[in-house]
Design goal:
The chain contains 9 helices and no strands. By secondary structure, the protein is mainly alpha-helical. Helix 5 packs antiparallel against helix 6 and helix 5 packs parallel to helix 7. The chain is elongated, with a radius of gyration of 21 Å. The two termini are about 35 Å apart.
């Protein structure tokens, strides 16, 4: 999302010149900007509302999916299989699976893992990847702009891998 020079200038004018300078409050400036947007750009507000509903729908969908996988034991079995195959701690494998689906659940699942290069690399990968939930949310938005969701997904995957690799390189310098 990029702001045009005109939009940026308008934000600065409303928030700083009117809000901060005239009323002594950036908060007042933000309020006046919101009022201005609501009054002048109804299509933008409608698009924002549509996007918000789409994002919330994906958050709900992935939350329910994780709940079903957890309640059915499928998540436990899959995490156990990964742990057996690769010799990882069960908590590590669970965090990996949850983080691949949804970043928030994956980050929560990291709790209790030791601070070591392998666990920090997992955290870095998940933060770079973002989760399928975020990718679905992003796809709904970026397709409207003519961008490729597949390219975005591959970029986020590469970001995750590079982040994890950098943890292994930099870990000895910090810990």
């Amino acid at each position: 999302f990029q702001l045009s020079a005109t939009t940026s200038s308008m934000i600065v004018r409303i928030v700083s010149a009117v809000g901060a300078a005239a009323f002594g409050s950036v908060r007042v400036g933000g309020f006046l900007y919101l009022v201005h947007i609501l009054a002048a750009f109804t299509k933008s507000v409608r698009t924002a509302a549509d996007t918000m509903v789409t994002v919330c729908a994906f958050v709900l969908f992935f939350s329910v999916l994780v709940g079903i996988l957890d309640a059915s034991g499928g998540l436990f079995r899959a995490a156990g299989g990964i742990s057996l195959r690769f010799g990882t701690e069960l908590r590590f494998s669970r965090a990996l699976l949850l983080g691949l689906l949804e970043l928030g659940n994956g980050a929560t699942a990291l709790q209790g893992l030791a601070v070591n290069a392998k666990n920090l690399a997992l955290a870095a990968f998940l933060l770079g990847w973002g989760g399928l939930s975020v990718h679905a949310q992003a796809a709904a938005v970026i397709m409207q702009g003519g961008l490729s969701p597949a390219r975005h997904g591959l970029s986020k995957l590469a970001h995750g891998f590079w982040s994890a690799l950098l943890v292994f390189v930099l870990y000895p310098l910090f810990f």
